[in-house]
Specification:
This protein has helices spanning 2-26, 56-60, 75-94, 100-120, 125-146, 149-172, 179-193, 197-221, 233-254. It has 256 residues and is an all-alpha fold. The protein has two domains: 1-96, no CATH class; 97-256, no CATH class. Helix 4 packs across helix 9 (233-254) and helix 5 (125-146) runs parallel beside helix 7. The longest helix has 25 residues, at 2-26. It is globular and about 55 Å long.
């Protein structure tokens, strides 16, 4: 059963990753994610079904548009593969648990938000709020199905706590912490808090740790200057991934 679930989540992850590419490209440009159908951003040619298979089509086309020959960014298959890997890891973590759909939706939203933040230093509400409004009811459903109402209460606590912590940082240093990061912290606190408030705090700690280490590495390597802004959203997403997938053994190891 677990093997079939993992394979199913891998395939779903590839398909979701393909849709996330549409979201990443169109939402910041205030375009519909439904219409028109997928097309080449260079020549506008509509993609045939055979050219819209996640990862496989990009490889067969050697990363170029069939119509105009323009290069297609490698980010497209990378996003699809990332979504598939994250979905598989989540399936391995939870198995056929009622809460699995909530975390699949949650991580899908984080992938899209991270990519947009890396590109534009923005965390658009048109992605963040749908992720929140889809994840929250699924957590409620999981709590009701398994009679784990305590988890739901902790999810609320985690959301409020993480929102409040980053809000305080934002008010103290608005240039260093955007309000989009504050909203995202609330979403992450809720999703990780379902597992325990300690997981929410771990997610924030890991986010700040990763941002510090990678930020220093970028400055030392000369790829970024001290005054250059580095988007924090991807680090929040990475911290959430660590907290959800490995938070329980990490907290036990630390004695929490």
């Amino acid at each position: 059963m677990t093997g079939l679930l993992v394979v199913a989540c891998a395939l779903v992850g590839l398909a979701v990753g393909s849709f996330l590419n549409v979201v990443i490209w169109r939402v910041p440009r205030e375009e519909s994610v439904v219409r028109p159908r997928s097309h080449c951003p260079a020549c506008g040619a509509q993609l045939a079904e055979r050219d819209n298979i996640p990862v496989v089509s990009w490889l067969l086309l050697r990363g170029r548009c069939r119509s105009c020959g323009q290069r297609i960014s490698a980010r497209y298959p990378l996003v699809e593969l990332l979504a598939a890997v994250v979905f598989v890891a989540t399936a391995v973590r939870f198995g056929a648990d009622w809460v699995l759909p909530a975390y699949l939706v949650f991580f899908a939203g984080l992938v899209a938000l991270s990519a947009i933040d890396l590109d534009l230093h923005r965390l658009p509400n048109r992605v963040l709020y749908p992720t929140l409004f889809a994840t929250a009811p699924l957590l409620v459903l999981a709590s009701a199905a398994a009679h784990r109402w305590g988890n739901l209460a902790r999810a609320a606590e985690g959301g409020v706590l993480c929102f409040a912590i980053l809000l305080a940082i934002h008010l103290a240093a608005p240039r260093g912490m955007g309000f989009g990061d504050v909203r995202l912290a609330g979403l992450i606190g809720m999703a990780t808090g379902w597992l325990g408030v300690g997981h929410s705090l771990l997610a924030l700690f890991a986010a700040f740790l990763f941002s510090a280490v990678i930020g220093i590495a970028l400055i030392v390597s000369g790829l970024r200057g001290r005054r250059d802004r580095i988007p924090f959203g991807p680090f929040l997403a990475l911290g959430a991934l660590v907290a959800v997938l490995w938070g329980t053994p990490l907290l036990h190891w630390y004695g929490v």
